[in-house]
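Onboarding guide, step 5: your first structure request.
Type a short instruction followed by the sequence, for example:

Predict the 3D structure of this protein.
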Amino acid sequence: MARPALRIDAVLVQAVIAGALSFAHLHDLAAAAGQDGWKAWAYPISVDLLLVASWRRLRSEGPSRLAWCWFVIALVASLGANVATAGLLDLQQVPAWLRILVAAWPALAFMGGTLLAHSTADHPAPEVPATPSDPEPVASPEPVASPEPEAIPAAVTDAEETPALPAAKPVTAAPAVPAALVDHARKVADDHHARTGSPIDTDTLRARLGVPPQLAQAIAAQLT
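The system replies with structure tokens like these:
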């Protein structure tokens, strides 16, 4: 497979030229401020690395006050060196305040790089909407049975003893069904009908709701 031909990107060439000029200006300013030898070469590397680190933090983690602060500081240091070496300052007679700023830069850059590398993002996290949970089954009330009627005493006559009438069977009243349980049962029935195409039966409804058979029959009667 043929390797792609090397292409020269005009933007990349422009970035290399601009970076080299900025690097030279920072070196010249540091050397004029009394930082000679290898120290003068370390200053532009420190400024450019801080600028790149803060910009990368902004691109990777979004807006951040910390990253924006150190990006502005590194940008001001780079632009200040470019402007200072344009003839506005006499590099043979550098003022004392500029010497102080150049001498204090290593500690400032070290603190900025450490904070960018070891601090977490300070922008608020996006809110995640809460997913609605399934409604909890409503506790079914206990069926209330009506009191048993008293047995009718046998009537005794002078001629013969009349047998006692049989006791009436207890009548159990239909349990009261809460409206919330009926609404939930209607949703379950609609879901069953949508999936199977047939109405839900009482046994399936009782199993889905987890209620007693008598209460399931009362709910089914209200759903019809």
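Each response can be followed by summary notes, for example: The first helix runs from residue 10 to 32.
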